[in-house]
From TrEMBL:
It comes from Prasinoderma singulare. Residues 8-300 form the BEACH domain. CDD domains: Beach. The keyword Repeat applies. This is BEACH domain-containing protein.
Length: 382
């Protein structure tokens, strides 16, 4: 794909507005939209502290079947992860209200950890290189205890909902890379206290034990109409106007001050120890993306008009109007094979050996519906 280079903040914000307009017009997928925003906000696969961030989109990791038409299958995108659980929400509100730094250096915050950090990325990606070795490096040359490693999708979601110190969102790999959930390298990840030896990630039952099926359904959820209708609220939290100021406070979306861009001018710190300490804290806590929007992100419209209904959604076409053969139809029984020729014709072979040719007629040339057929000479195949 084409490389994207952002030269300054103003151009990044202008580009972000164009990206939003394309997404709202259904000219790009939700996945591509989020990747574009991450890039414009300074996120990159080359920096664990500024890794691209994606949202948890589902809330159902227990059912036998995943119903993507049920709104309760989805996470509430209008709230930060740490505010999804009402009890957790009350806790972070109380912490924000009661916190006072005696030295007056640290402002109030709801969360002491961050939704995107090097630790969170390595947690998810530990079964792949170079992340496995980077995890070891972060842990002083060894793996963390097995009970703290990524073991189960459902258990990780449960921890996010109930642990006030765990507010991590997801990485893009959850939506396209099944290998993230397999221990293809055969790494010895240890044994949990309950005796479980870690291997592949435990997936929801609706994934049928298949990482490919899990990623397929997870991506389908991301591209769903439900997520399309609510994703703008998550964009406001992560990249937009609810990132800072009163809007962030009202949304319970305030993180530790060192995670924000420009919170500290590291280059202006003369004391080497203090500078090293600040840099270490930034690496540990993670970084909030650069703010791209000062106003609310507009909601995406309804389902995009289908330009190719026969290909994209054949179930929506009326059987009587989907194809209109001229004449009496094809002799020789049911059609067994259809082949598209280089000149755009469709060649249909019936079970009786009759070959018929058809050509596409667009609505621009025939006001008879989205698709029509024009029958040609039928020739018997001997």
């Amino acid at each position: 794909g084409a490389a994207l280079t952002v030269t300054d903040r103003r151009r990044a914000k202008e580009a972000a507005e164009r990206v939003c307009a394309r997404w709202r017009a259904h000219q790009m997928s939700t996945f591509d939209f989020l990747m574009a925003l991450n890039t414009l906000a300074g996120r990159t696969f080359n920096d664990l502290t500024q890794y691209p961030v994606f949202p948890w989109v589902l809330a159902d990791y227990e059912s036998e079947e995943l119903d993507l038409s049920d709104p309760t299958s989805y996470r509430d995108l209008s709230k930060p992860v740490g505010a999804l659980n009402p009890k957790q929400l009350e806790f972070v509100k109380e912490r924000y209200g009661s916190f006072e730094d005696p030295e007056g250096v640290v402002p109030k915050f709801h969360y002491g950890s961050h939704y995107s950090s090097a630790g969170a990325v390595l947690y998810y990606m530990i079964r792949l290189q170079p992340f496995h070795w980077l995890h070891r490096e972060l842990q002083g040359g060894k793996l963390d205890h097995a009970d703290r490693l990524f073991h189960s999708v459902g258990a990780t979601w449960g921890n996010v909902l109930h642990n006030t110190s765990d507010v991590k969102e997801l990485t893009p790999e959850w939506f396209y890379q099944p290998e993230t959930f397999r221990n293809l390298g055969g790494y010895e990840l240890g044994t949990r206290q309950d005796g479980t030896t870690l291997g592949d990630v435990v997936l929801p039952r609706w994934a049928r034990g298949s990482p490919e099926e899990f990623v397929r359904l997870h991506r389908e959820a991301l591209e769903s109409e439900h997520v399309s209708a609510h994703l703008h609220q998550w964009v406001d939290l992560i990249f937009g106007y609810k990132q800072t100021g009163k809007a962030a406070v009202d949304a319970c979306n305030v993180f530790y001050y060192l995670t924000y861009e420009g919170a500290v001018d590291v280059d202006a710190i003369d004391d080497e120890r203090e500078r090293a300490s600040i840099e270490a804290q930034i690496v540990e806590f993670g970084q909030t993306p650069a703010q791209l929007f000062r106003r609310p992100c507009a909601e995406r419209g309804g389902a995009r008009p289908l330009r190719r209904p026969l290909r994209d959604a054949p179930q929506l076409l009326e059987p009587a109007g989907a194809a209109r053969p001229l004449g009496e139809g094809i002799a020789g029984g049911a059609v067994q094979h259809v082949v598209l020729s280089p000149d755009g014709r469709a060649l249909a072979l019936s079970e009786g050996g009759t070959l018929a040719t058809h050509r596409w007629i667009t609505p621009a040339t025939l006001a008879a519906g989205a698709f029509s057929f024009a029958g040609g000479q039928a020739a018997a195949v001997t």
